[in-house]
Amino acid sequence: MATRGTMLAQIEDWAQRQPHAPALHDRTSAGGWDITSYRGYWHELRRVGKGLMAIGVQPEDCVAIVGANRPDWVICQHGINAAQAIPAPLYVTLLADQMAYIIGNAQAKVAICDDRIQLDKLLAIREAGETLIEWIVTMDPLDSDADKVISLDELKARGDALSDADLEARINAVKNDDVALLIYTSGTTGKPKGAMFTHEGIELIGSATAAVFPFMISPETTMLSYLPLCHAAEQGMTNFAGLMTGGKVYFCRDMKKIKDHLVDVRPSVFLAVPRVWEKFEAALRGKMAEASPTKAKILKWARETELRGFLRDNRGESGRPSLRRWLANKKVIGPIKEALGLDRLKVSLSGAAPISTSTLEFFASIGIAIHEGYGMTETTAFASVQPYGRIKFGTIGKPLRGVQVKIADDGEIMLKGRNMVSGYYRLPEKTAELYDEEGWMHTGDLGEIDSDGYISITGRKKDLIITAGGKNVAPAEMEGLLQSIPGVGQAVVVGDRQPYLCALIVLDPDALPALEKASGISGLTSVQVAATHPGVNSFIEEQVKSECNAHVARYQTIKKFKILEDTFSVDGGELTPTLKVKRNVVNEKYASVIDELYGTGTVPVRA
């Protein structure tokens, strides 16, 4: 019997309580779903655990995993736990030398991968001889003449020769304060660090999230797993709050297919990073821009009606929904949500980066109340979230149960709780820097707490721009305002040690129809065409003045900007796998553009 409170105990409990309930869903080539029940889930992870024991995995060893989201991924993750070992996930986008660094830090002797691309990387790493990698396990059978490369089925077959008693001894030895998972920071700066998640911390976050959204504890809860499983936010939803609460998880192996999967799955709980919500918003605004005058008028009425109702609900005003709101949902809002695959949503969340109030208001106007959460790898995913039915725009909600928050004298948000990671794997110096002498973690985020206990983020301590005039500027506020301009996908404000602030602006290809409508300019067939169009530059200039500069202090205003002809991407290096901008990469990659902004030839924003 697994130790109570561990991830293994949670899965075992659901396997006994609802053995035939569906747990894991994998897309078939024919478009259907392969389903694994909770009993099957428990059975298969045990086989993986015994298989790992058979090839020499010892307690507290690390085992690397790299692959797209699929049932085998989480089965392997918890199979590693069953062998009393520690999963060390890797992003599929990593280059071989980047993977080698993490595998070396984890001292992993076994690596599990899903396809030929990842296998080739692992073989190259093993051949180089700079890590301890000995065995490579492939989730799918892959032809290879290399020694000690076996399929997952072969691994399970080797484990079948071991007795259940051998595995039970390992499972029973897993304790609540043991390391359950390593999550390596994606690293917007510096080398990745392996944050050590404990079973206790994971259980706390799972139960605290369920306390905010109690209806999630149900076999009917349906989620779509599509963000990388090596990221804390996806682990927080798929494992901590999904499979730990007896729900159904559908896996999407390719983020580009998320829209098709949503329409098919129609989840009841959905988490997205801000960039995903923004892409949905841009696509919807583009379609709305094409509506006839009559339809546009009806749509405007419906959205305004729904937003008013949403705001009343969140103020706690009781009463039945008005006939107008019912009609707006029946005829306009409902069909929009159904087309997105979000018509069954009970709760939608945003995390991993700040999301603009304008985006939150847009989705609230179509009946999707996004609960913004806050946290980081080191807090075992979420530390705070908007309370259900009491959303306050511009805040990141209230602390989860068991999480303490305070604001330091310099405005920095500080956190404490059993959910905090136990440190960084094999990096004692970095671990020592993580907490102060009183046990508080300094988040690096600047913020404040209002009289109702809601937390607001005002900036990032490390991102602070100190102008030549000595003014401290948090760029996030201006970037959020810039991103509210029609057509703008991302913005990066620069100006450290400079006399004024400038901005790099990236257009969103999905938002070009909205840009055409707002600017009155036609023929914007691509980002490159729009970025070099004089009329677009003039339009953006006017918007910078009215939508950004008019709302901030003089020293915070944008004096010049450059619309880039490129888009930011993970492959290009400007974005992390969860689509957060890497400022250091952008500053380095566009150094010549930034230099030009502080010279001549760029667009000045005329007062």
CATH architecture classification of the largest domain: 3-Layer(aba) Sandwich
CATH class placement of the largest domain: Alpha Beta
According to DSSP, the number of beta strands is: 26
Enumerate how many helices there are, as a single number.
21
Q: Characterize the biggest β-sheet.
A: 5 strands, parallel
pLDDT < 50 runs, ≥5 residues: none
Which topology of the largest domain does CATH recognise?
Rossmann fold
- Helix fraction bin: 25-40%
Strand content: 15-25%
Number of domains: 3
The CATH homologous superfamily of the largest domain is called ANL, N-terminal domain
Span between termini: 70 Å
Please tell me the overall pLDDT. Answer: 93
Q: Could you say which overall geometry the principal axes of the C-alpha atoms support?
A: globular
Major sheet: order of its strands? Answer: 4-3-5-6-7
Task: Using the CA coordinates, give the radius of gyration.
Answer: 25 Å
Computed structural class? alpha/beta
Topology:
Layout: H1 7-17, E1 22-27, E2 33-37, H2 38-54, E3 62-66, H3 71-82, E4 86-90, H4 96-106, E5 110-113, H5 116-128, E6 135-138, E7 149-151, H6 152-159, H7 164-173, E8 179-184, E9 194-198, H8 199-212, E10 222-225, H9 232-242, E11 248-251, H10 258-265, E12 269-272, H11 274-289, H12 293-314, H13 323-340, E13 347-350, H14 357-364, E14 370-376, E15 381-385, E16 398-399, E17 403-407, E18 412-417, H15 428-434, E19 441-449, E20 455-460, E21 465-466, E22 472-473, H16 475-482, E23 488-494, E24 501-507, H17 512-519, H18 527-531, H19 534-548, E25 558-564, H20 583-589, H21 591-597, E26 603-604
Helix pairs in contact: 1-2, 2-3, 2-6, 4-5, 8-9, 11-17, 12-13
